[in-house]
Fold each of these.
Amino acid sequence: MKALVAVKRVIDYNVKVRVKADNSGVDLSNTKMSINPFCEIAVEEAVRLKEAGIVDEVIVASIGPKEAQEQIRAALALGADRGILVQTDEKAYPLQVAKILKGIAEQESAEIILMGKIAIDDDNNQTGQMLAALMGIGQGTFASEVKVEGGKVNVTREVDGGLETVALSLPAVITTDLRLNEPRYAKLPNIMKAKKKPLDEKTPADFGVDMTSKQQILKVTPPPERAAGIKVASVDELIDKLRNEAHVI
Ligand code: AMP
């Protein structure tokens, strides 16, 4: 059985995001980029399924600029077998990404499609759901446990007030939540080995996908600066300020 994992190149979660001076978007120049953390959890889960003998091959796909090769190589160093970069310099919106992933999943006959529940740059939380709908297959979103048994996958989901377990026939789309696993660190020998693993390059046109979007970003603005804090001399002064200045008690 093949597993397909979608990994997105995003600004590293430790980096302070800078907005461009003309408010047209986020400044990516000289910024550390990484695999979206939820995608890293998806890679880890696929590699664990391979180690458990359930999956034979883990394929990693990314849609983005040439530099997204770095994130594919990072996933290969974590244990994935082969990568596919669908190269585009256009902004990749969820619907187009889902259409391309559908093309890859069908070409590869992938049975398990693992992706992050959300990409931390655009906060869409849409691509997995769109992919499952386009393919007409089941989806287990916000997964905190994945068990593959007898042609089915049981996915435990984090829902309001507890956990829900759903059984999905394969192929299925699974999107990862934070508590699914703790991704391993890539060991140096595996980073070296990853450089030799196959990485195919494709274009959106290879999957018949037009990257022109029906959506346009009008403006990106940074959050308001927080005012500096102050030190108070006593509990009484704190209560006074909370009551009479902040008006929160
Ligand atoms: P989103 O719906 O944009 O929040 O993204 C959810 C998940 O879809 C991500 O964690 C990835 O697994 C996948 N995804 C979104 N955009 C891309 C992309 N450009 N390349 C590869 N995977 C993507």
Amino acid sequence: MTATPSRPVVLTGDRTTGPLHLGHYVGSLEARLKLQDEAEQYLLLADMQALTDHMGRHFTVRENVIEVAIDYLAVGIDPAKSIICIQSQIPELAELSMLLMNLVTVSRLERNPTIKEEIRLRGFERDIPAGFLVYPVSQAADITAFKATVVPVGRDQLPMIEQTNELVRSFNAGVGRDILVECGALLSPVGRLPGVDGKAKMSKSLNNAISLGAEPDEIHKAVKRTYTDSNHLRVDDPGRVEGNVVFSFLDAFESDKQRLAELKRRYRAGGLADSALKRLLDERLQAVIEPIRLRRQRFAKDPGEIINVLRHGTERAREKAAATFAEVRRALGLAYFA
Ligand code: TRP
């Protein structure tokens, strides 16, 4: 057997605050499907991170761990190729976070643009849960515990990668050895899908998302609501393609690019009705979602099997995290009894 050249180590994380939707599918699940054949890929269900602003609603976090795991399997993540694991069940991640926290200042955490924006959105003002403020450190622990070299993220998460690499450099310099590994972000080529209302990114909490388990009728309704161009009142009026959510969706789901270019041309010129475009979009979305929905239904009937997949993946992930943490411990002189 020939030795496998060292494969990239990929780590993705999803805060388990809700099931995944079509925006996640286009933004990241498709990329993960491809990566699972090329990399050592860890999919981390970040329930500890979800809890940083969900204490009191913690049961939803637990439910969503299972839902997101079902989403992964339903879109075709193969547990024989990708390692699906639960953050809270890998204590080494929390231990590593404790140590890394000593290498970052509170003011640096407060300057993290992602955190700043999230604090604003949640209206925390000065009443920020300490766990929330330090979640970038816990995220750095997630990444470094697996010695991930590649982290697929959306643009909003880039400050997290930067902060992780700062911690890696600071830790390695402190112990005088390269134990932790720096990582690079892998930005998804298609930006996240807009929500059907055209106002923001697709997000369940903004009520503008299409879920991966959507029934045919829900898809019809969502397509009906999908924002086009508020000035396109008569069929013959020229229409706008930019900012038109139906076209954003067709960019993602219509594989016949020539046909799509022709539709855009006709829409701009005037004479193409929104209803005709929406019929095409409905057809495309039904075709994408139907197999996912059916697989979701099958997996949802077998919770024991989901737990088995999670148990097995978490065991494998824990081995890797524990090996890294043992090195960290030794480097800091904390291996008293070894
Ligand atoms: N912060 C990510 C999110 O908002 C989730 C996450 C947790 C993550 N740990 C990670 C992402 C590690 C990448 C790497 O969904």
